[in-house]
Amino acid sequence: MQEMANTLDYIIDTMLVFHPLEPYLSLLKLDGKLILMGIISTTLQFLTPAVLLGRKTITGSYVGSVKEIEEMLEFCKEKDLSSTIEVVKMDYLNKAIERVEKNDVKYRFVVNVSRSKLDQQIHL
């Protein structure tokens, strides 16, 4: 991460468990923004110089409107941005939840519901 210090304009943080913010704040350029998505039930902590010295902003949203989500996806498309994910099947869901609770997830989980009962219900 040291190689990437002060290189990013924005970070969209989707981690819904406690995690230190300083490593991510150090990646942001001057006037960079760390955008927290979702609710974390633990108080977040960070050293104020990490924010003040780089004029960095920590902001967030619990949920966006359909219009905001469309704008965000369009922005990602225009800038050729993508995320690293781990796709899991429905039968792995309980194990995935256990891994989230243990903070053992490197990437965001995406559940593939194809060929599951949920998928059959959606397509009816």
TrEMBL record:
<feature type="domain" description="Alcohol dehydrogenase-like C-terminal">
    <location>
        <begin position="3"/>
        <end position="77"/>
    </location>
</feature>
<dbReference type="Pfam" id="PF00107">
    <property type="entry name" value="ADH_zinc_N"/>
</dbReference>
<comment type="similarity">
    <text>Belongs to the zinc-containing alcohol dehydrogenase family.</text>
</comment>
<dbReference type="InterPro" id="IPR013149">
    <property type="entry name" value="ADH-like_C"/>
</dbReference>
<protein>
    <submittedName>
        <fullName>Cinnamyl alcohol dehydrogenase 1</fullName>
    </submittedName>
</protein>
<keyword id="KW-0560">Oxidoreductase</keyword>
<feature type="transmembrane region" description="Helical">
    <location>
        <begin position="34"/>
        <end position="53"/>
    </location>
</feature>
<keyword id="KW-1133">Transmembrane helix</keyword>
<dbReference type="InterPro" id="IPR036291">
    <property type="entry name" value="NAD(P)-bd_dom_sf"/>
</dbReference>
<keyword id="KW-0472">Membrane</keyword>
<dbReference type="GO" id="GO:0009809">
    <property type="term" value="P:lignin biosynthetic process"/>
</dbReference>
<dbReference type="GO" id="GO:0016616">
    <property type="term" value="F:oxidoreductase activity, acting on the CH-OH group of donors, NAD or NADP as acceptor"/>
</dbReference>
<keyword id="KW-0812">Transmembrane</keyword>
<dbReference type="GO" id="GO:0046872">
    <property type="term" value="F:metal ion binding"/>
</dbReference>
<keyword id="KW-0479">Metal-binding</keyword>
<dbReference type="InterPro" id="IPR047109">
    <property type="entry name" value="CAD-like"/>
</dbReference>
<keyword id="KW-0862">Zinc</keyword>
